[in-house]
């Protein structure tokens, strides 16, 4: 049997919008799966799928707003049974359609929660203590010419509102407890075990907090849940940190609120139309921007790669998925 025949014997896994761990995953597990890589082909995607992916039973996909798994793609994959996304967010998957087709779904589960929570705290401290702004001030040589740098705001004892108290939101809350912050949260359902004040309405949460940290998933229900009214309720010194998804905030309104001084600042890792980041934000000194990297640590990448392989292996040996996505 030649190498070509051996590859044909292996489980066929289609890779779409290759996840960042893909090269590692491919080099560590060379003879376990046969990966189909449409980006190496000159064919348009659907043509590639029709020509080469008819027996692909599993699909690895990148998350974070870069690829959408559409019905048109799914229509070209008659053997597909499993979708593994390298992300916690699943807003790039059409969940009802995947369910309707009876496909299993695995996702990144809890792999990134600590890193994303760390980043939320980093962004918050950066905005209110002006770390990046201070860095710019120093590098521009303004220390000797402009004198004193403006005062920041204190983190300890701040009233923080967490939007979405899932795994990431809970990690954020845990960290902020250490700073002596007063924590409240909004979620669809009150969490009976959570020792924080619950608001069933995000407007009320904003009106009673000085900081909002967006940790929920993007769904039809949470799309633009942070609108102008919510931001105005948060107040002129209020700060928003977003490590969820850009479209949870009405981005245009947020930019207006920042420019008009209706809110005090923002720390943003995610944006409404990634990879585009609105240029108006670049000119605001009270805004800290990062390029959707809250999940980006070496350790978590390695863990993610392991988890993705475990999901593929359990699936191909008819066992339960290690990190099934359940809504
Ligand atoms: O944004 C990143 C993710 O959803 O994992």
Describe this structure as you would to a colleague.
- This protein is of the alpha/beta class.
- It folds into two domains: 128 residues, Rossmann fold; 177 residues, NAD(P)-binding Rossmann-like Domain (Rossmann fold, 3-Layer(aba) Sandwich).
- It has 13 helices and twelve strands.
- The strands form two sheets. The chain has a seven-stranded parallel sheet. It has a five-stranded parallel sheet with strand order 2-1-3-4-5, with helices on both faces.
- α6 crosses α9.
- The radius of gyration is 22 Å and the shape is elongated.
- The relative contact order is 0.14.
- The mean pLDDT is 94.
- Glyoxylic acid binds next to loops.
Structural class: alpha/beta
CATH fold naming of the largest domain: Rossmann fold
Number of strands: 12
The hetero molecules present are: glyoxylic acid
| CATH class label of the largest domain | Alpha Beta
Distance between the termini: 44 Å
Strand order of the largest sheet: 8-7-6-9-10-11-12
* Named CATH architecture of the largest domain: 3-Layer(aba) Sandwich
* CATH 4th-level superfamily of the largest domain: NAD(P)-binding Rossmann-like Domain
Computed CA radius of gyration, to the nearest angstrom:
22 Å
SSE succession: HEHEHEHEHEHHHEHEEHEHEHEEH
The portion of residues assigned to helices is 25-40%
InterPro entries: D-isomer_2-hydroxyacid_DH, D-isomer_2_OHA_DH_cat_dom, D-isomer_DH_CS1, D-isomer_DH_NAD-bd, NAD(P)-bd_dom_sf
Keywords: NAD, NADP, Oxidoreductase
Pfam families: 2-Hacid_dh, 2-Hacid_dh_C
GO molecular function: glyoxylate reductase (NADPH) activity; hydroxypyruvate reductase [NAD(P)H] activity; NAD binding
